[in-house]
Structures are given as structure tokens and as C-alpha cells.
Amino acid sequence: MRIVLIGAGNLATNLGRALKEAGENIIQVYSRTEESASALAARLDCPYTCSLETVSLEAELYIVSVKDSVLSDVLVSLYTPERADALFVHTAGSMPLSVFDRAGIGRCGVFYPMQTFSKLRPVDFVHLPVFVESKRQDDLPLLRSLAVELSADVYEMPSEKRRYLHLAAVFACNFANHCYARAGQILQEQGIPFDVMLPLIDETAAKVHGMSPREAQTGPAVRYDRNVMERHLELLNENTDAAEEYELLSRGIHALRHSGDTD
User: Fold this and answer.
1) First CA to last CA distance, the chain
2) pLDDT per residue as tens digits for the range 71-88
3) pLDDT, mean over the chain
4) Which of 132, 157, 182 is the last residue of a domain?
5) Mind giving me the DSSP string for 42-93?
């Protein structure tokens, strides 16, 4: 399939690599910055452009991986009558299928690989869940077939449910990583290497493969041990943001862990 990648960020870089390894024909990369466009194009051995006006008209599939805030405008600029037969998909977890309506795109869908991506860290797609959706029912088999080339875990999911999936992912990934960053800040101030946290982080993640996160929760907030918590807050007395996060997270942990308890 002839594919054009619109965007050259973290997701597009990993997806482009996976598609090329699966034998798909990526004929062009677009990015508004030449540095990003040229870097990804070199990796995929294809041409690139930094102008939407010169994006190839020959693609059968346009995969649009840009910031949510500019997605609608990019689609409007990209769509032309010459591309009426092509399929357009976006890769955003939180954007609905209806984002294509403003551009008047008839053949459209969603191809959402749910993972955290970084350009310099290749991701194995084999067991990475990919969620697909399409406006036309006859386009769904094509998207599913493409997804199956990359992953063994492919799901059809409408926009309404996918937005909750993305919300949950923010909690599980972005917020959790922020806590790692906060821990790193505390350790750095005391001259302690962050590596000492890695076995703890690994075991915390491993536990939820065999038990629910609610059951796996431990620590002073579960029992709401104010003696320990107050000592921690004293250590954070010069870091107001961290102290507020500690209090908020502790209340949330305690409430969620004990929700539904009857004793």
C-alpha cells in the first residue's frame, strides 16, 4: 500500500519504522520542520516535504500524526479532490472521527497505537494494542489488516469509548511518569542516584499483571498513616507543588483503595 506520513514526531517515527519493517510502501514524509522530516525520511528511505502543497497525490493512505490542536487545520489543507479516493486516518487517542467532517473527507478512520513513544527508543508493536475505527464500514477490514501486520492485539473501538481509553492512559503513563520525575528530583537534591528506584518501579508494574491495581496498592496512604505522611510533608515544606501533589494523591489512594469496603 502506498502510504504518506503526515508528521514526523515520536509516534510517526515509530509507526513508520514498524510499517516499513512490515513491508509497506511509505512513499513520502511530511513535517513542517525540515530537520524532523529529513531525519524520518532518511530512516524510511523515502522523499520528504515541508509543504502540504507538495504532499504526494499518489498515496492510497494518508496517516496524519500531528498535534491535536492543529489536526483539523492540517486535514483541511491536505484534502483535495485529487485525493478523494484515498483513505485518511489520524492516530490521536482523544480526537473523534468527526474531526474529518470540516475537511469534507469521506473515507476516513482512526489508527491509534496505544503506547508511549520516543524517537530514539524503538517500540515493539507485536503486543502493542492498536485501536481502529472507520467512517465507512468497508474501510474497516483494510485498517484491521494493516494493524494485524504490526500487532497481535487489534481492537475496533468507537470514538466515544476511545476517549476514555486515552484518559486512562494519561493516568497510567503520563501521570505515573511525572511521579518518577518527582522522585528523581527529590533524589537528585540528596545526591542519590535514580537507579535505586528501578527495582521498585519494575516490581510495581509487574504486580498489576497478576492482580488489580487497587489490590496491589501499598504504602502509608492506603492506611492513611498520618504520622508517616506528616513526616514526608515536612521534608517537602520548601516544595509547595510536590507537597500539594503528595496530599492529593494520598487522599485519592486511600479513597480508591477502600471504596466499596463495608467494614
Assistant:
1) 60
2) 999 999 999 999 999 999
3) 96
4) 157
5) HHHTS-EES-GGGS-S--SEEEE---HHHHHHHHHHH--GGGTTSEEEE--S
